[in-house]
Amino acid sequence: MMRKIVFYGTPTCSDCPPAKAVLEENNIKFLFVDVCESVGKLKMFLKLRDTEDAFQEVREQHKVGVPCIVIDDETIVIQNPDHVRQLIEQYHLKEE
User: Is 76 helix (H, G, I), strand (E, B) or coil?
Assistant: First the structure.
């Protein structure tokens, strides 16, 4: 089954490139949305960030909320590269 995977981040965020690299190293197919590339992409991310329960703590701490990943319809704020590795296993993202 083909999973819908969207990674929200930006190259200027110190946490985003290492997390994105884990997906790439594992040959995971995903759409990368650079939230700083355009106002439209930023608005798309902010709508997600401001409405999803996964961002509750992020909002309370006045943080941005990237990197984050949406797997199918589930939004997850990424903690670190090891968290991405855990998600790959948990969601069976590697294609056999």
Answer: strand
CA distance 86 to 67: 15
pLDDT tens over the chain, length 96 residues: 678 999 999 999 999 999 999 999 999 999 999 999 999 999 999 999 999 999 999 999 999 999 999 999 999 999 999 999 999 999 999 875
Q: Is the pTM value of this prediction over 0.85? A: yes
Beta carbons within 8 Å of 1's beta carbon, 6+ residues apart: none
What gap in Å lies between CA 24 and CA 30, rounded to an integer? 9
d(CA 35, CA 7): 10
Look-up of token digits 């319809």: 73
